[in-house]
Design a protein that fits this description.
CATH class of the domain at 441-525: Alpha Beta
Strand order of the largest sheet: 10-12-13-14-15-16-17-18-19-20-21
Number of helices: 17
Radius of gyration: 33 Å
CATH superfamily of the domain at 441-525: Phosphatidylinositol 3-kinase Catalytic Subunit, Chain A, domain 1
CATH topology of the domain at 441-525: Ubiquitin-like (UB roll)
Length: 532
Amino acid sequence: MSDTLTLDVIGRRVTVNGEHATVRFAGVVPPVAGPWLGVEWDNPERGKHDGSHEGTVYFKCRHPTGGSFIRPKKVNFGIDFLTAVKNRYVLEDELEEDGKEQIVTIGNKPVETIGFDSVMKQQSQLSKLQEVSLRNCAVSCAGEKGGVAEACPNIRNVDLSKNLLSSWDEVIHIADQLRHLEVLNLSENKLKFPSGSAPLTGTFSALKVLVLNRTGITWAEVLWCAAGCPGLEELYLKSNEIFISERPTDVLQTIRLLDLSSNQLIDESQLFLIAHLPRLEQLILSDIGISSIHFPDAGIGCKTSMFPSLQYLVVNDNQISQWSFFNELDKLPSLRALSCLRNPLTKDDKDTRTTRQLIIAKIGQLKTLNKCEILPEERLGAELDYQRAFGNEWKKAGGHQDPDKNRLSEEFLAAHPRYQFLCLKYGAPEDGELKRQPLMLKNQLLTLKIKYPHQLDQKVLEKQLPGSMTIQKVKGFLSRLLKVPVSDLLLSYESPEVSCLAKYKVKLNPQTVTLNRLQIASLILNGGHRSV
């Protein structure tokens, strides 16, 4: 850039030696002669001061070392959209043909051209573009009016992240020329929105996905933008310090996925403002600092009217430390998948399997937990173990084998809202199941009797094995013990009482089902009635 300055550079996004900044000042800084630009760096460690020089405040920065004075000729104000597209997508060998002469006929007159064939190839090439990635290409404006629409009218997906766009008006100028635009990524652009202007209407009529991560956008500006996206399905708003200040009424009604990750100002009461979006299926709330949630419209064992379509919830990296959080999630009528990694209740746990089982038992409709499918036998085992683990508490709180005699305390119902349902599903736990010894290694060993149904003369073997041992590992153990190939082993099992596994005819997976899960008394080699 030349050393000639105008006031319209204030607020412009620039780069200096690859570092991004915003222009906050343009003018003279005595005693040094000549024009200067005062910039606020995105990376505050890049600067030297807060916008002051020798006692005079020329501009203000959010960080005490976020500012610098730069000579204008060292600053890059960027390029227009179409130039960036050509730089990225027009082949160099086509540009080299510009010097070749060619005779073409225009009307009835022959005309000598230079590079005409190359221009035609470029236009043909750009017109076919549907996906364009211009990340970190210093795009600052739309360029000549109508140029984008003429050169590349079929673009549907544009990545403009980490560029020099400083005004939403420039985004509109680009979008107005891309009538088929479905996906737009504007992350890491510090955008200024028009103040006091009427909401957009249909500017992004075909847009389905809008990414605005780390743009500094506010919730009011989100709603203003959403008015111009009548068919928007996915909206990403990560790391914007958003505070949800009002309920969306006429906008975001088609949204299916909403990412609010890393917005630390969001709390439970704000989430309720978006709880009635009718089509919201995926909600990403990672790293927002949430620790609890309560749906006041739903009592114990009831479903909430909030988030009616929510199927997938992500609450990774939060402050969840109470089991009541998962009790409340069971009230969501459509919830099928949950991710809750790296929370105080779920991280650094010595027994992650137990934590997983408890979550599965507490949320009855869950099909996937932390991106791992919940198989039918896993749910069955988790719910049966949950019944046994809290059976003594259930009895002390007024639980009884006869449902008509149940007088459970409100405290127990609040802590274990699904327990009564599990009693109806599997039957109330019996006294024999509740006499559990401390979980020491010697008490976790099962005495297993191994029989041969077709060889009555064979002696019954007895072995002590850990209850957590999977059937697959049991087969490996027996293969080594009996010197028989694993493929030749056909195992069945006997239980001292009717097994819920037999009652519900659940297909077993030998890689995940454990001896504890089967409640085995005897294994029958090469025969029997309950195959594993």
